[in-house]
Design brief:
Elements lengths: L21 E5 L4 H11 L3 E6 L13 E3 L5 E3 H4 L5 E5 L5 H10 L5 E4 L5 H4 L4 H7 L4 E6 L16 H7 L2 H6 L12 H24 L4 E5 H8 L2 H7 L12 E7 L2 E7 L2 H10 L14 H6 L1 H12 L5 H10 L3 E4 L3 H6 L1 H5 L3 E4 L9 E4 L23 H9 L3 H9 L5
Parallel strand pairs: 1-2, 1-6, 2-5, 6-7, 7-8
Antiparallel strand pairs: 3-4, 9-10, 10-11, 12-13
Helix pairs in contact: 1-8, 6-9, 8-9
């Protein structure tokens, strides 16, 4: 899907569910920007507040693209900031804080993802914002939250940090060095999703009560929720983590790579044995229990499965196993994902045109939430640093050109 295209165009007449909702986001990197981009895709107007000059830290990531203003926009920024406007405000300047508090009542949601307690120290915490905008919902996404005492208050957090603290790395790798960020930004995107859920719930609550509230999402909490089996399995006696277990859940080699198969029930194991021609497994005492499947995965089961798949591609193997009622999928490379017919049909990649001399577009994941009465797109380019500063200050605060120029001369805005 190309930037500016409309998917499910027949639904355009219904509008979008968040049309009219306005979000002021003091955000950086991914945990909050992913959330506000999702809200923007459902119709919300998102005004992103950045520092004058270089803008938010996600712009400095690599690889990068040069925007029309000559500044670099890194990959983290590009994939999390479609459909937004950008203003630059110096939050360290007293007048900068005054500007933000003046803007807050004009927005339904005030969102930030600084370290726990940082916004309160700047005079822009929940109490300060709710005092001037009591109906505004305040969303915080931080490493360790703000509404309860935590020994990690003030700690910074990137996705791999909270993933490690959730226990999932120890569960999978034990005494070996963990493979950090094994599935991308789980810590960022999980907290973003929970932030979206919190905002939508708070909007409904405000419709009923007329009151805003504080939505506090900790990345650590979010990953503990996403890696639920770590604590749940341990509490039920499974003390070896991912090194023990009672199911086949692994990758197997085909002619062009790997496919992943999960077998966790006896009837599935019986079907697997039948499909690959090893029915003797059904009377083999070594394989009579689920624990036995795991114990003999590498010396019995893997050679048999890979022998069966030796003349098949990973997609052929997965297709045949699925046709026999087993759950399996090929381990795709990036080009295979990009060309996959499911991904294309579901509009799951958005082509963002380059603004430099590179011909290939930047690919950004599309909206995974499909709705029959909501059109997808048209999406707009990630903004340049401060691209909409003058328009927002004039439109929301009624500032004249001379007043905006004076703020810029004083270093309050970029």
């Amino acid at each position: 899907m190309k930037l500016g295209d409309v998917g499910n165009a027949g639904a355009a007449g219904y509008g979008k569910p968040l049309d009219g909702v306005r979000i002021l986001a003091i955000e950086q990197m991914q945990a909050l920007p992913y959330a506000t981009q999702m809200l923007a895709r459902f119709g919300a107007e998102v005004v992103k507040v950045e520092a004058p000059g270089a803008g938010e830290s996600g712009r400095g990531s690599m690889p990068a693209m040069t925007q029309p203003d000559g500044k670099q926009a890194g990959a983290t920024f590009l994939r999390n900031n479609l459909d937004k406007r950008s203003i630059t405000v110096n939050l360290k300047h007293p007048k900068g804080k005054e500007l933000i508090l003046a803007l807050a009542p004009h927005f339904d949601v005030f969102a930030e993802n600084f370290k726990s307690g940082a916004m309160t120290k700047m005079g822009l915490g929940y109490d300060a914002v709710s005092a001037v905008a009591p109906k505004t919902i305040y969303l915080s996404v931080s490493g360790f939250g703000n509404l309860a005492d935590t020994p990690y208050a003030g700690w910074g957090a990137y996705a791999p940090i909270v993933e490690a603290m959730s226990g999932i790395y120890d569960y999978k790798w034990g005494d070996q060095p963990p493979v950090t960020a094994p599935v991308g930004a789980l810590g960022d995107i999980s907290s973003a999703i929970f932030g979206v859920i919190g905002v939508l719930s708070a909007l409904i609550h405000r419709d009923r009560t007329g009151e805003g509230q504080y939505v506090d999402v900790a990345m650590f909490d979010s990953v503990v929720a996403m890696t639920d089996l770590v604590t749940n399995f341990w509490s039920m006696g499974m003390r070896e983590g991912g090194r023990g277990g009672s199911l086949i859940m692994d990758g197997f080699r085909a002619t062009d790579g790997f496919f992943v198969l999960q077998v966790g029930r006896e009837h599935q194991f019986e079907r697997l044995a039948q499909v690959i021609g090893h029915e003797e497994w059904l009377t083999d005492p070594r394989l009579a229990t689920r624990a036995g499947w795991v114990e003999h995965l590498d010396d019995v089961i893997r050679p048999a499965i890979e022998g069966w798949a030796a003349d098949k591609t990973k997609l052929e193997a997965a297709t045949e196993l699925n046709s026999q009622g087993l759950v399996c999928g090929p381990s795709f490379s990036a080009p295979e994902v990009i060309g996959d017919p499911h991904i294309i049909e579901r509009n799951m990649l958005v082509e963002v045109p380059r603004t430099d001399d590179v011909p290939e577009p930047v690919l950004v994941p599309g909206n995974p939430v499909k709705m029959s009465k909501v059109a997808e797109g048209p999406e707009t380019m990630p903004p340049m640093v401060g691209e909409h500063t003058d328009a927002v200050l004039a439109g929301d605060l009624g500032l004249s050109d001379s007043e905006v120029a004076a703020l810029r001369a004083d270093g309050v805005i970029g």
